[in-house]
Design goal:
Structural class of chain B: mainly alpha
Number of helices of chain A: 13
CATH topology of one domain in chain B: MetI-like fold
Oligomer: heterodimer
Radius of gyration of chain B: 29 Å
CATH class of one domain in chain B: Mainly Alpha
CATH architecture of one domain in chain B: Orthogonal Bundle
Mean pLDDT of chain B: 84
CATH superfamily of one domain in chain B: MetI-like
Strand content of chain A: 15-25%
Structural class of chain A: alpha/beta
Number of strands of chain A: 11
Shape of chain B: globular
Distance between the termini of chain A: 29 Å
Distance between the termini of chain B: 48 Å
Strand content of chain B: under 5%
Strand order of the largest sheet of chain B: 1-2
Low-confidence stretches of chain B: 1-19
Strand order of the largest sheet of chain A: 2-1-3-11-4-8-6-7
Number of helices of chain B: 16
Largest sheet of chain A: 8 strands, mixed
Number of strands of chain B: 2
Helix content of chain A: 25-40%
Chain lengths: ~325, ~375
């Protein structure tokens, strides 16, 4: 009896899971994995935050046990994986427009027309009437606008350009949606930290970063006009409202490109963990399922402190159920 | 078999007895030279063969890299051809690739960085090799009355070594640190003067745009500091190698210190100095991380040194991790172009060095 228990423990020991993918959820994932390792010392998880594209690529090539991406895999990409794919939304976050405007208001309001225009390069001065009209009573300086974009391919860019394409035909037919697009104007920074540094160092700059980065670095974030014409700032309530606007389909791929709820913040996304349907090694499969279950339950408690949105109860139930597909 | 030295020694017994201890005059039991053993012959051959193989392996490795990149770039070269070099859009969504802005940006930042870096590098090399520090310090020590004290004479040498090591230490600073330093220190520092120049001399194409943040000037300034150690260290070595006789002859003919330096010493060392500049240029062309952080990564072609730009190396670094198949081909093509530019610069540089060398030899 004692001997079998000991043998079981030895068998269970030393499972190492390899994962690669998005940088966006990386701080949260890293936290989960260290915490999980404390509870289950036999499971080691290596997560390399190389970017969503690299995550999908390495996952397709079978180089990792799981992947992660801010852009859910397309049908085409899924078809290329012979062991099958389960897409699991693990957390959600919002993308904010952080700005650096000496002499500007702390909560600048930007209409949809204004922020599309800024990134299209048609609005070039901070005191442009299209910006001023949404901010009555505020004197805006005559500063040149320097849009800051991501120079490297990223899921953040994908989510942001997907939103811009959803609200502007000019954007859709121009730069379009993608992990890296041909931005008509502005300067590019490498990674969220690069964009953050450029915004902080450039008076007149505005750029898109994940909420967590803007919050940590205390940058002012623009209040954006949503689909219902309301000006909404990014916070827990408006993000949750955005998530609630779209019901998750059975395959758990939901694009929230332009939430229609009046209280919703407009640029919100889920981020997905990519798992295979079949795992050859049951130890790896069980360890991975354990980690995911932990992330969905205990792990959600870290969300808010790290700047993410805790998943709604209904989503947690749906994702837990999807775990059964993994065998 | 008696070695020739012994017979020579026997012929001059008196001098030997005076200059060497008696033990040395005793006849030797063993010959002092012998033909190499078979073992040594083989060791020598093996050594020569291995150096030959290693030397050619380096050439082979370069060719392999070129071939490998070239074959990966093949489809892109067929699809895009020459339009790739002149196109100005990089749009992975529409499979539209052009690298003219990146080529212009690479050459612009490298030349500007190299011009600034060479001026300072050469100045440092002259300062450290021509005894300016020693003469200045000697004067100071004489005033203080310390010049004749033992120990103080070596102080200028120490300080020179310290300065030399400090400059060379710049080469050990990681590129990403330079990039961060550029964002947080250089850009805010140059923004004021740059925008003043734009406001007052904006009609000059070089100052045609305001500097908002990243751009060619901050990138070039940081590049200048990055190539500084290469240029100053090699130039200094070249200056130190100038034969003392030349220097003395110049002074003997009545040249002042600066006349001697500018008309005799620097021209004599010019081969080495040019070599240093070419090495620095190679470094500047290939520099990636600092430029990806400072040049602005914008596909813009502008004469203005305050405008954001893109460089080939930064383009590669930014787009590789997320690139799809078609884009990887285009990136390989861009890498090949960067290789070709580097090769071209090296050939031109080597030719200039050879010409300069030949001209100088003709003078002697």
């Amino acid at each position: 009896m004692g001997l079998t228990a000991w043998r079981d423990a030895a068998l269970a020991a030393d499972v190492t899971l390899q994962g690669t993918g998005a940088t966006f959820p990386a701080p949260l994932y890293q936290r989960w994995f260290t915490e999980y390792n404390k509870l289950h010392p036999e499971v080691q998880i290596n997560y390399q935050a190389l970017g969503s594209g690299a995550g999908v690529k390495q996952f397709q090539e079978g180089l990792v046990n799981f992947g992660a991406s801010d852009a859910a895999m397309t049908d085409e990409e899924i078809a290329a994986v012979k062991d099958g794919v389960v897409l699991l939304p693990m957390t959600a976050g919002s993308i904010v427009l952080a700005y650096n405007l000496p002499g500007g208001p702390p909560e600048l309001k930007l209409s949809r027309e204004a922020y599309v225009g800024i990134f299209l390069g048609t609005i070039t001065k901070w005191n442009d009437p299209k910006i001023a009209s949404a901010n009555p009573g505020v004197t805006l300086p005559d500063t040149k606008i320097t849009p800051v974009t991501r120079s490297d391919g990223s899921g953040t860019t994908f989510v942001f350009t997907q939103h811009l394409s959803a609200i502007s035909n000019e954007w859709k037919s121009g730069p379009g949606t993608g992990k890296s697009v041909n931005f008509p104007t502005g300067v590019g920074g490498k990674g969220n930290p690069g964009v953050t540094a450029l915004i902080k160092q450039t008076p007149g700059a505005i750029g898109y970063v994940e909420y967590g980065y803007a919050k940590q670095t205390n940058m002012p974030m623009a209040v954006l006009e949503n689909k219902s014409g309301q000006y909404v700032k990014a916070d827990r309530e408006s993000e949750k409202a955005a998530l609630s606007s779209v019901a998750l389909p059975p395959d758990l791929r939901a694009w929230i490109s332009d939430p229609a709820v009046p209280t919703a913040y407009p640029i919100v996304t889920y981020t997905w963990l990519l798992a295979y349907k079949k795992y050859a090694d049951p130890k790896v499969r069980d360890a991975l399922k354990g980690v995911i279950q932990y992330g969905l339950t205990e792990g959600q408690k870290f969300s808010e402190e790290l700047g993410y949105i805790a998943l709604p109860e209904s989503v947690v139930t749906a994702v837990s159920k999807a775990l059964d597909q993994i065998s | 078999m008696s070695p020739p030295e012994q017979s020579g020694a026997a012929a001059r017994p008196n001098r030997i007895a005076v200059t060497t201890p008696p033990a040395a005059t005793e006849p030797r039991d063993e010959p002092i030279s012998r033909p190499p053993s078979t073992m040594e012959v083989w060791a020598d051959r093996a050594f020569r063969a291995s150096t030959l193989v290693i030397a050619w392996a380096v050439v082979g490795l370069v060719l392999y890299v070129v071939w490998d990149i070239g074959s990966a770039a093949g489809p892109a070269i067929r699809d895009y051809g020459g339009a790739f070099l002149t196109g100005t859009t990089w749009d992975a969504n529409r499979n539209e690739f052009g690298i003219r802005p990146a080529i212009v940006g690479t050459v612009y930042t490298s030349f500007l960085g190299l011009a600034i870096g060479s001026a300072f590098g050469l100045a440092i090399a002259i300062f450290l090799s021509e005894g300016f520090l020693a003469s200045g310090l000697d004067g100071a020590l004489k005033v203080l009355g310390l010049a004749d004290r033992p120990g103080w004479a070596s102080v200028p040498g120490w300080i020179e070594d310290l300065l030399k090591t400090t400059v060379e230490l710049l080469a050990a600073v990681p590129s990403v640190v330079y990039g961060l330093w550029g964002i947080f220190v250089v850009i805010p520092l140059v923004r004021g003067p740059a925008n003043w120049l734009h406001d007052h001399l904006g009609w000059l194409p070089f100052f045609g745009t305001p500097l908002s943040g990243p751009g060619i000037l901050p990138a070039s300034l940081v590049l200048a500091i990055m190539v500084l150690p290469t240029i100053s260290a090699i130039s200094r070595d070249a200056l130190v190698e100038v034969p003392p006789k030349l220097r003395e002859a110049a002074f003997g003919l009545g040249a002042t210190r600066w006349e001697a330096i500018l008309a005799v010493i620097v021209p004599t060392a010019s081969t080495g100095i040019l070599g240093a500049i070419i090495l620095g240029f190679g470094r500047a062309l290939g520099e990636t991380m600092a430029l990806a952080m400072l040049a602005g990564n914008a596909n813009v072609i502008s004469w203005s040194m305050f405008s954001p730009a893109n460089t080939l190396a930064a383009l590669l670094a930014n787009h590789f991790p997320e690139a799809g198949t078609v884009e990887v081909g285009a990136l390989m093509y861009a890498a090949l172009v960067l290789l070709a530019i580097t090769l071209l610069v090296n050939i031109v540089g080597t030719t200039i060095v050879q010409r300069a060398d030949a001209a100088l030899k003709g003078l002697r």
